[in-house]
């Protein structure tokens, strides 16, 4: 069993697609953390109800981990470890990180200490390999949250598509995939 840390956005979906392509034989589950009082996935600003619809569409079990408001790291790790300990035969934890080495190193360290190996299926992939997946699959990606300083440039609800990508490539302060938290995305499955 491999568990994908599922944010509900494009990076998690890309990690899912690459992982499924590379390891079609491995069973998968999704794991999402959410703010318990609001029912919202932090940073992504996506309701847990939408995450449940995504999991149902993918026909995967969802492990939903409630967190307190403004959750400190220690509590986050404790809650995630408790949720993982209830699962059987976990082989790998799968993440949609693209190129932030400090985030990857942190994940590898803390989850290795818990006894888990991490996989990063989209790590340092070319944006030219990633974007076609989002364009050719029956999904729509839209901006779900924008850091305040970038709100004049990006709007919640705006499609994350090729036109937006072209605009972002000309803005030196914004990572085209939002890796530094400039913006977050929401995956919507087309019917």
Walk me through what this model shows.
The protein has helices at about 10-20, 50-60, 75-85, 100-115, 125-135, 160-170; strands spanning about 1-5, 30-35, 40, 45, 60-65, 90-95, 115-120, 140-145, 185-190. With about 190 residues, the protein is an alpha/beta fold. The chain has a single domain (about 1-190), classed as HUPs (Rossmann fold), CATH 3.40.50. Strand 3 and strand 4 form a beta hairpin. The protein is globular and about 45 Å long.
Q: How many strands appear in the DSSP assignment?
A: 9
The CATH topology is given as Rossmann fold
> In the CATH hierarchy, what is the class?
Alpha Beta
Shape: globular
Residues in β-strands, percent = 15-25%
Assembly state of the chains shown:
single chain
Using the CA coordinates, give the radius of gyration.
Answer: 16 Å
Number of helices: 6
Structural class: alpha/beta
Task: Please write the string of helix (H) and strand (E) elements.
Answer: EHEEEHEHEHEHEHE
Pfam family, one: Diphthami_syn_2
InterPro entries: Diphthami_syn_dom, Rossmann-like_a/b/a_fold
Organism: Fodinibius salsisoli
Protein name: Diphthamide synthase domain-containing protein
